[in-house]
Amino acid sequence: MSSIAVSTTINGDDVEYLCQADETLLDVLRNRLGLMGSKEGCGTGDCGACSTIMDGRVVCSCLVLGAEAQGRSIETIEGMANGSELHPLQTKFIEHAALQCGICTPGFLMAAKALLDVNPEPTEEEIRFWLAGNLCRCTGYDKIVRAVQAAAAEMRGEAA
Amino acid sequence: MSFDAAYQSQKLKSVGTRPLRPDGVDKVTGRARYGADFNMPGQLVARVLRSPHAHARIVRMDTGAAEALKGVKAVVTAADLPDLTNGDAELFAVLDNCMARTKALYDGHAVAAVAAIDERTAKQALKLIEVEYEILPHVVDVDAAMVADAPILNDELFTGGVDPKPDTPSNVANRAEFGHGDVDAGFAEADFIVERSYKTEQTHQGYIEPHACVASCNPDGTAELWVCTQGHFVFRQNCADLLGLEVSKLRVTSSEIGGGFGGKTHVWAEPVALALSRKAGRPVKLVMSRDEVFRASGPTSATSIDVKIGAKADGKITAAMATLRYSSGPYPGMWAELGAMTSFACYDLENVKTVGFEVIVNRPKVAAYRAPSAPMAAFAVESAIDELAQKLGVNAVELRIKNAAREGTKSSYGPVYGPIGIGPTLEAAQSHPHMSAPLGKNQGRGMACGFWFNFGGQTCSDLNVNADGTVALAVGTVDVGGSRASLSLIAAEELGIDYKDVKAVVADTATLGYNDMTDGSRGTFSSSMATISAARNAIAIMRARAALTWDIPVEDVYWEDGHAKAAGTKYGNLSPLSVRDIAAESGNTGGPIAGHSELVADGAGVSFATHICDVEVDPETGATSIIRYTVIQDAGKAVHPSYVEGQYQGGAAQGIGWALNEEYIYGADGRLQNSGFLDYRIPVCSDLPMIDTQILEIPNPNHPYGVRGVGETSIVPPLAATANAVSNAVGVRMSHIPMSPPRILAALNAERD
Ligand code: FES
Ligand code: FES
Questions:
Q1: 10 Å Cβ neighbour count for B219?
Q2: pTM higher than 0.90, yes or no?
Q3: Least crowded by CB within 10 Å, which of B123, B253, B578, B647?
């Protein structure tokens, strides 16, 4: 089977890779590009552990083909911090103990970032429904929702 | 050095604060390495062939075509994992579960495995393996498996725990009985009796990270295993036993773990990966798919439980009885026994009897799931208690308070309790504003109590004082939910230094002595004990070094607030030496400073919780939403309160999922029909409200800071609390879990007819 050549942008950098026609973006990120921050919890679009942002929208990278990334812009967890400066969501997740095992965390952070990018002042209900595609088995979601609220407040410049 | 574990009331500086966790940054940046995030040079990819049948004899297997496929480097079957178990039935069950030998015993049972250069080739090779099965009659239901003409899974299994020993095999592996007093006399005294049968369905731990490992067997007979596990020392032992390796030759490193909840306490794929690596002569990576996780790992027992409780008109319980049947998959476990032990543990009973039956069925081998077996028993018992309260016309909390176990109570499973928290959690619930908040239409409130033993066990830790006075702490219990933060707090407390000067790591099996699993809520309890002991040993050395520096007898040096101090006035004003001062001089005073500790942590304090739950049930659809939830639990001492709250909330959420949605659904063919997160629905963010928590601290007398385990009790009450809330909302007693919309509608319809 011959490979497909793909040119894309990942976390702001130009990236080129070869992939098989049936290979998922998640497999490309993890196995070919070494970007293992995106996790596979199910491979069927049901857990959100593989969430990445493609052209501004959250996608399950396990449901996107590697070849589909051609000409797109992809954001992954590895690009979330600005150098050694964490994104407010990352800081608040740690401060609010919004992670226990942490396997779901990269996916939650990507999904939450996409939310705050379009809605800087979400209600609790909006947060809960936006994040309903991300499964967390450890926390019961309470501290995750609070961390997102706190990050949103900080990004709006309010004292959290 | 002997270690005094007795509780000492003291003012704590570090313990009880909420610092940032040491692994936080790695986890929010995607750098933390979990089971599937590790690779080795020349690594192959493994896939496992699984039985599509619930019960089938393996008549013939041909792996020739698969072996001949280009890119395939090894194919293994049971023949590559010969039986080295030497009559150890429990270990044989582990082996047979890793790779079916003569029979496949459940849909998903591994029968062969392949290692190839890539996943595509490995999958192709699986299709080339020919297996001829003789399909046998199967049974998946716990009650059906007990009837006389049920298909027998194991011709050599005779019910244990009964006298005389039966002369025909059956699916009932064991009978276990607990209790005291005379229940018949107790029931004769009762003014009111409630009696009902309950069922709970099989659920999965549902950790988001599938099982994953990388195995590497070297030509010189050594081997390495990288794996997500709750207990790498136990995995090392099991793998070494099954592969015929010396323990010292197998080094196991635990990865970051993406959830376990008891489900990562047993080996499944690891011996297979090692066998593949041994045969191929190359490292092998094996990662389960979600479908495999559901079909072949976890799950918990399905149960069928009868409860009978009698009470005087004043509410005093005179007798309590439960018969509990737990499915254990195709191999016996101790699940019914645990259910029978925990059933009535919350109450002070004169006459109590519980009987547990361990039943084998054609489902995956049951693994522990957070307070294993207790939630189902609590569901049945706490539902019955609620029903009793209604029958007596008394308040459900008051009835429980009246009958609650207390210090000195002989528990239903035998031991006499020390100071315990059931009464206080009930009183806190009674006065909690949640209890008196108004309810709307179609809404109901329920409450329930729960108990878990908590374990201690073998633990080993190393504490090294670095030359700059910071501390490196190596523990052997896997961090499943923030224990590195908690243990760093403990070390800081004991040494009197800053939390940020302590760095805790989970050491691999080659660098530390044996440690039991992180299970039974033992991680923080037992490793904190070992950490305290290691710190005290390090302090003893630092006192000696100070004595040497000052040239005074060591008995005259005491330790306070992170400093060695000279006792009394006779030494004038020798200014105290800090850890930093002593460490800086260590090269001149005898070399590196370290405290080591190895111990069996005894006396893990039992813990209790009371939960309050409000639901709203849509009478048209039968759908239930949780509108308010409160957890009240005794922690003994909350080392890092944020992570204690997290344990409370997480356990409650899992219990709510169990109560409302989660269940294994089998077809008539014995195959699992919902082996994915779409059809096996765990609670999502929009399903839940904020979960309020209240931490009570009734010190455990057997721990220096009073710590009890906190990880498990929180999943015990929610099944019953939710069921009581739904029953109160719809006016029908719900006795079958999960209370999925169809089940609620059926109950409502049955009531109407
Ligand atoms: S791995 Fe993509 S949604 Fe689960
Ligand atoms: S923190 Fe473990 S799954 Fe979310």
A1: 7
A2: yes
A3: B123
